[in-house]
Design brief:
The structure is a single chain. This protein is of the alpha/beta class and about 400 residues long. It is about 45% helix and about 15% strand. It has three domains: about 140 residues, Rossmann fold (3-Layer(aba) Sandwich), CATH 3.40.50.720; about 130 residues, no CATH class; about 70 residues, Orthogonal Bundle (Rna Polymerase Sigma Factor, Chain: A). It contains 17 helices and eleven strands. The radius of gyration is 20 Å and the shape is globular. It starts with 9 loop residues before the first strand and ends with a helix.
């Protein structure tokens, strides 16, 4: 279980501090300065934003992954008693430093090594980065068991499930029901989707998020990744991986997910769609803090809408389920191909509907083995990326 330091401020490290989740985390840390002490902050390339945040939160250590920005960060923080380092090893060092809580908010497979590093030292890890768990699920579970680390999901659906899941009696649970907003193309036809631009895809109707996850929400690959994430986070008595995890479209994103019990009871967590609520939950856990978010007004909302997902329009959920059932490193192949396809789509070099096609073909071509080490997963990730790149080139 987590090492909770009572009395002293909780020390927190934020990996991916300059991103959407990272910035919300920083605002919450700043809202109760006596309650938290910031150990380390990391970013990839956004030196200005990292410097501004470091001045505000005065961490002991700051790491910028891109070495080209080292000098700028070092100079800007001179005289502040903040250690500055650069490069991927510096990000790992940030994860290794002794903090009570590590917020894993780097996007994509790049978050994998530092997240595992924090898990290995037995930290409490608040997990926003879903890709790390998708790629290394069995390995991560083994490392958590070995080190005694605690994983607190920040992804809103998993955070909701975590709040209502009876970990003492998992056999009483029938299903996890993950809700999905349906993204910006819920009501669009495939013709419109085929012409979708990056700005159409990133124009999420409810959530404000980073570009990659916004595109994932538009293809609904995000929900596919979340089915895999839920499989690894919650002990369900499944016959086949994923068969007790359902997806339900709920455009208002008020019910963040549900657990249905064998007796017919459904327990859900509700709130306004604001990531500050699950982030605040993780920061204060097992206590609670003010998330500085708008409160839910159910009278104003009036009614809640639900519908089944459309598998023809959103094949990504089915691809993710197939990868989960195949097991081993198939989810890592799925994730790598998706990261490549989304990046090319965002650059204007791939059509929106081609994202799922690239993922499907990469899954057919790359045969990943079992997940036994991070090095192997990284190798599989690289082969899948190369294959996805060549499929994209052929499609262009
Ligand atoms: P973002 O793109 O806004 O931010 C990503 C962060 O990762 C930035 O700080 C960036 O500097 C850092 N980063 C990127 N590449 C890196 C690298 N190679 N090395 C080190 N750092 C690197 O992303 P986001 O929307 O904040 O999402 C972060 C993670 O949380 C993603 O895995 C996403 O799926 C998950 N998540 C986000 C939301 C949300 O509302 N934004 C909700 C649920 C889950
Ligand atoms: Mg989510």
């Amino acid at each position: 279980m987590a090492k909770l330091v009572t009395g002293a401020p909780r020390s927190v490290t934020v990996l991916g501090a300059t991103g959407s989740v990272g910035r919300s985390t920083a605002d919450l840390l700043a809202s109760e300065p006596g309650r938290f002490r910031v150990e380390a902050l990391t970013a990839a390339t956004n030196a200005d934003s990292l410097v501004e945040m470091a001045r505000r939160l005065t961490p002991r250590f700051v790491a910028i992954a891109n070495e080209a920005h080292y000098k700028a960060v070092k100079t800007a923080l001179a005289g502040m008693d903040i250690e500055v380092a650069a490069g991927p090893d510096a990000v790992l060092e940030a994860a290794r430093r002794d903090a009570d809580l590590v917020i894993a908010a780097i996007v994509g497979a790049a978050g994998l090594p530092p997240t595992l590093e924090a898990v290995r030292r037995g930290a409490t890890v608040a997990l926003a980065n879903k890709e790390a768990l998708v790629c290394t699920g069995p390995l991560m579970a083994a490392e958590v068991a070995k080190s005694g680390a605690t994983l607190l999901p920040i992804d809103s659906e998993h955070n909701a499930v975590f709040q209502v899941f009876d970990f003492e009696r998992p056999e009483t649970i029938d299903k996890i029901i993950l809700t999905a907003s349906g993204g910006p193309f819920r009501e669009a036809d495939r013709k419109t989707m085929a012409r979708a631009t990056p700005s159409d895809a990133c124009n999420h109707p409810v959530w404000s998020m980073g570009a990659k996850i916004s595109v994932d929400s538009a293809t609904m690959m995000n929900k596919g990744l979340e089915v895999i994430e839920a499989h690894y986070l919650f002990p369900l008595a499944e016959e086949r991986p994923g068969d007790r995890i359902e997806v339900l479209v709920h455009p208002q994103s008020v019910v963040h997910s549900m657990v249905s019990y064998r007796d017919g009871s459904f327990l859900a967590q509700l709130g306004t769609p604001d990531m500050k609520i699950p982030i605040a939950y993780a920061l204060a856990w097992p206590d609670r803090m003010d998330a500085q978010a708008e409160r839910l007004d159910l009278v104003r909302i009036g009614s809640l809408h639900f519908e089944a997902p459309n598998p023809e329009k959103f094949p990504a959920i089915g691809l993710a389920r197939a990868a989960l059932r195949e097991g081993g490193s198939a989810p890592a192949v799925l994730n790598a191909a998706n990261e490549v396809a989304v990046a090319r789509f965002l650059e204007g070099g791939l059509g929106f509907l081609d994202i799922a096609s690239v993922v499907e073909e990469t899954l057919q071509q790359v045969n990943g083995g079992a997940v036994t080490s991070v090095e192997e997963v990284i190798q599989t990730d690289l082969s899948a990326r190369r294959m996805a790149e060549s499929i994209v080139r052929r499609m262009a």
